[in-house]
Write a structure and sequence with these properties.
Blueprint (H helix, E strand, L loop, with lengths): L1 H15 L6 H21 L7 H17 L5 H7 L10 H20 L11
Helix pairs in contact: 2-3, 2-5, 4-5
């Protein structure tokens, strides 16, 4: 029982731990944000029946997968449901802010490392 609980906790912790931001992750995240914003702009302010919402769910899931969960994703997701505001490049802006914050955290904490640190 205790072992399965620890396994579940470690899996949840790994899902919430932000990944190290690499140039490839940055390009992928910006690609997701820009593609989503362009598609939503092309669909117009009213969009096709549910297409905007589907794009928002996909963008949120992909961004979470690439950059890890960040609380700024939640208001961005909610703003996209307000007609008119979905015409703004909210996903691209949110991704830019999340990347900047994650890079700042990485500069402070240093690169990730597996295993013990040997200080010589």
């Amino acid at each position: 029982m205790e072992k399965t609980r620890l396994n579940l906790e470690s899996r949840l912790a790994s899902l919430l731990r932000p990944p190290f931001i690499t140039p490839a992750r940055t390009r992928i995240a910006y690609g997701v944000g820009i593609a989503t914003d362009v598609l939503q702009f092309v669909l117009g302010p009213f969009g096709w029946a549910g297409a905007d919402e589907v794009l928002d769910v996909i963008a949120a899931a992909l961004t979470w997968r690439v950059l890890g969960f960040h609380p700024l994703l939640l208001p961005t997701f909610a703003i996209e449901f307000i007609p008119g505001l979905d015409m703004l490049p909210t996903w691209t802006g949110c991704i830019a802010v999340v990347i900047a914050l994650r890079r700042r955290e990485q500069r402070i904490s240093g690169p990730p490392h597996d295993g013990p640190v040997i200080d010589v």
